Amino acid sequence: MKFFLDTAKIDEIKEAHDTGLLDGVTTNPSLVKKAGGDFFETLSEIASVVDGPVSAETVATDHETMLQEGLKCAKIADNIAVKVPLTVDGLKTCKALRAEGIMVNVTLCFSANQALLAAKAGATFISPFVGRHDDVGFNGMELIEDIRTIYDNYGFDTEILVASIRHPVHVLEAARIGGDVATMPWDVMKKLFNHPLTDKGLDAFLKDWAATGFSIL
Ligand code: E4P
């Protein structure tokens, strides 16, 4: 499973990159607003730090303008994935950008049928939002299961990018189901490293080692 960071904050991205476990970044207009700074400069800096795909979201709602935005975003760097919404115009734009060899992340997916359409439009990534699904009383992970089944039935190579992740259990469940990518806030990624028994065990080993008086180096 690939790990993407869901943020436009460069300091968080650098910290996550330093772990050696970061495979990409997703941004959206709300995350760009939260990070502050110029859109193009921010995306360009992120794309220079991260080796993998960096999603830059379009904001037009009609196909022609969205395509122009997508082509402009794609020029920021070779690893930019253009994000388009799951609408008729979004999927038309997806198809056109894919024909140019540009990576496309189709976002705001809330149903398996929508994910099927995105795969047919040649999307590189489909972003089903699990947390927002949970928020309105549905089980977001059932959506991931359905998409996995459908994509496997037909051999689609669109990657399932599990989005709107709120806690480590979302990551665990997405990995069990076979989501290809989990995009998460840095706060959630950091939590994946932690276990109280790891801390307790390490503490005991270090105390015993100190009592031996040995030194490794
Ligand atoms: C990422 O691509 C999505 O835009 C993001 O995960 C949405 O997360 P949220 O529901 O926490 O805003």
From TrEMBL:
Superkingdom, natural source: Bacteria
UniProt entry keywords in alphabetical sequence: Cytoplasm, Pentose shunt, Schiff base, Transferase
Localization: Cytoplasm
Molecular functions per Gene Ontology: aldehyde-lyase activity; transaldolase activity
EC primary class: transferase
UniProt-listed Enzyme Commission number(s): 2.2.1.2
Gene Ontology CC entries for this record: cytoplasm
Main location per the UniProt record: cytoplasm
Catalysed reactions listed for this entry: D-sedoheptulose 7-phosphate + D-glyceraldehyde 3-phosphate = D-erythrose 4-phosphate + beta-D-fructose 6-phosphate
InterPro entries named among the record's database cross-references: Aldolase_TIM, TAL/FSA, Transaldolase_3B, Transaldolase_3B/F6P_aldolase, Transaldolase_AS, TSA/FSA_arc/bac
GO biological process, one term: carbohydrate metabolic process
Catalytic residue positions: K83 (schiff-base intermediate with substrate)
Pathway, per record: Carbohydrate degradation; pentose phosphate pathway; D-glyceraldehyde 3-phosphate and beta-D-fructose 6-phosphate from D-ribose 5-phosphate and D-xylulose 5-phosphate (non-oxidative stage): step 2/3
Biological role stated in the UniProt entry: Transaldolase is important for the balance of metabolites in the pentose-phosphate pathway.
Family (UniProt): Belongs to the transaldolase family. Type 3B subfamily.
PANTHER family: FRUCTOSE-6-PHOSPHATE ALDOLASE 1-RELATED (PTHR10683:SF40), TRANSALDOLASE (PTHR10683)
Protein name: Probable transaldolase
Taxonomy of the source species: Bacteria, Pseudomonadati, Pseudomonadota, Alphaproteobacteria, Kordiimonadales
Encoding gene, per UniProt annotation: tal
